[in-house]
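To illustrate the input format used throughout this study, we show a single complete record. The first block contains the structure-token representation of the backbone; no residue identities are included at this stage. The design step must infer an amino acid for every position from geometry alone.
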């Protein structure tokens, strides 16, 4: 492994000083945290160009202002508010040729020293044609633009996923053989209709579980083909969840994956799940992922600057198997926290448990989720309001089906190269860009996340906690009364049935 001598050590902040950075996917979960960390910990950084498109009637300038106004940037606003002015929105669309960028904006890339490619579709059920455009075409288009324009480029980090080759249950920090020629797949996407490609999906992908993992795996092959022309590195995060430390503990801005499961359970909507309770989920805090991305670019642009382009540096941003979470433990801890800080809009008591028995799962799904939602929707409609619970249950079940492959299997990830990033940092850089991972991701990590989820996702202010606790207490009382009545009726029915013939 290449190293820097003490006198030639270029710190992380020095590396980014006065250097322009370009990001795709800057408005996403990881992208936001990456922008915040760069601006706060690299105060002398140049401009941060963020590729955006107009969306829902908002211009890119409006979306940039909205992005920087979110609570994630509160700490930066207090410490160095002028840094926010370094964010420069650039119009573009990753599904278009040349990323849909204007010629004058492409020219601005000539001063870019570091590029981060985070943009991708994370939907597991995207049609193959859309996944190809979002995950493979965008990667090639970006690399072509950088190759022709950014003459002073020092590093390009492609953010993939630790599940890009999910058939391997132990994932090493290396590239795996391609399942198909990505260039031929691009030609097929141009030639065939979406329905035709979807029909060929199983054959083309060698039975990959979904279009997301398949196209993300092929995007890594795009990186491999460009490794001799661009200073590339790949970072593969596992399941990215709430921050563990920076800039605040427990921050998250989406309902994806386990977050959505925990919120819907806390609202009393989800009562069961089809999974193996003892299976483990590999959760990595988003701020740890972001530091890995920043350091991967730093190492590629300093220590590895003149190193051979082969093999391509790959970093699995994940935790050890021992640090990963059992679903059962995560859900049980979740119930504890939900009783301590319940949601004010809870529909019923958070209750239920996962099962590994498919027949029992569908039995519980119908009687504890579908039927109650249907009856409540009838009541809501009768009261003159728009029903929503059945529609929500359909959406939740669709997410459960999309995630089923992942919750019913387990993976272990090699993290040697990721951890080595910390060993080559000096004391000051280790303090700013290093991380500490607890032995278990339960405890304070989950606890801090719940109050933050309550504030920023569910939009429950802290002053509603007393009301929410009183509401939950009333629900528990009513639930016990209902159980008592039902048990009493059952006893009476059994008594009458048993002794009816003797009367």
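Output of the design step:
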């Amino acid at each position: 492994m290449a190293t820097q001598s003490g006198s030639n050590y270029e710190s992380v902040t020095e590396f980014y000083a006065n250097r322009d950075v370009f990001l795709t996917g800057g408005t996403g979960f990881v992208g936001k945290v990456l922008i915040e960390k760069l601006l706060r910990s690299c105060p002398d950084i140049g401009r941060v160009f963020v590729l955006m498109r107009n969306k829902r009637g908002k211009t890119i300038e409006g979306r940039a202002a909205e992005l920087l106004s979110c609570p994630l940037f509160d700490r930066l606003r207090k410490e160095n508010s002028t840094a926010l002015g370094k964010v420069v929105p650039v119009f573009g669309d990753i599904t278009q040729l040349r990323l849909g960028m204007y010629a004058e904006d492409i020219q601005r890339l000539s001063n870019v020293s570091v590029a981060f490619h985070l943009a991708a579709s994370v939907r597991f059920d995207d049609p193959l044609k859309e996944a190809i455009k979002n995950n493979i075409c965008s990667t090639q288009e970006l690399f072509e633009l950088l190759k022709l324009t950014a003459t002073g480029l020092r590093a390009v980090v492609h953010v993939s996923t630790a599940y890009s080759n999910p058939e391997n249950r132990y994932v090493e920090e290396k590239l795996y053989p391609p399942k198909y020629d990505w260039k031929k797949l691009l030609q097929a996407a141009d030639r065939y209709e979406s329905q035709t490609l979807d029909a060929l999906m199983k054959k083309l992908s060698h039975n990959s579980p979904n279009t997301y993992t398949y196209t993300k795996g092929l995007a890594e092959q795009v990186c491999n083909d460009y490794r001799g022309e661009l200073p590339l590195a790949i970072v593969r995060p596992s399941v990215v969840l709430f921050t563990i430390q920076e800039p605040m503990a427990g921050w998250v801005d989406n309902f994806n994956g386990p977050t959505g499961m925990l919120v819907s359970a806390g609202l009393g909507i989800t009562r069961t799940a089809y999974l193996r309770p003892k299976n483990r989920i590999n959760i990595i805090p988003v701020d740890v992922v972001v530091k890995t991305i920043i350091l991967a670019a730093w190492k590629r642009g300093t220590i590895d600057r003149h190193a051979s382009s082969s093999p391509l540096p790959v970093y699995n941003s994940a935790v050890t198997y021992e640090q990963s979470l059992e679903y059962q433990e995560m859900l049980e801890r979740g119930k504890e926290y939900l009783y301590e800080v319940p949601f004010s809009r809870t529909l019923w008591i958070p209750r239920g448990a996962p099962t590994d028995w498919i027949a029992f799962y569908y039995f519980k799904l119908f009687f504890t989720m579908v039927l109650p939602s249907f009856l409540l929707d009838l009541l809501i409609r009768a009261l003159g309001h728009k029903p929503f619970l059945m529609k929500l249950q359909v959406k939740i079940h669709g997410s459960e089906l999309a995630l089923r492959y992942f919750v019913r299997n387990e993976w272990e990830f090699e993290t040697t190269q990721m951890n080595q990033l910390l060993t080559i940092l000096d004391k000051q850089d280790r303090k700013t860009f290093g991380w500490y991972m607890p032995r278990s991701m339960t405890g304070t990590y989950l606890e801090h996340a719940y109050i933050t989820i309550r504030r920023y996702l569910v939009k429950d202010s802290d002053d509603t906690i007393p009301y929410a606790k009183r509401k939950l207490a009333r629900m528990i009382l009513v639930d016990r009364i209902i159980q008592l009545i039902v048990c009493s009726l059952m006893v009476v029915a059994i008594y009458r049935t048993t002794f009816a013939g003797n009367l």
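Structural context for interpreting the output: The mean pLDDT is 88. Residues 94 and 138 are 5 Å apart (CA to CA).
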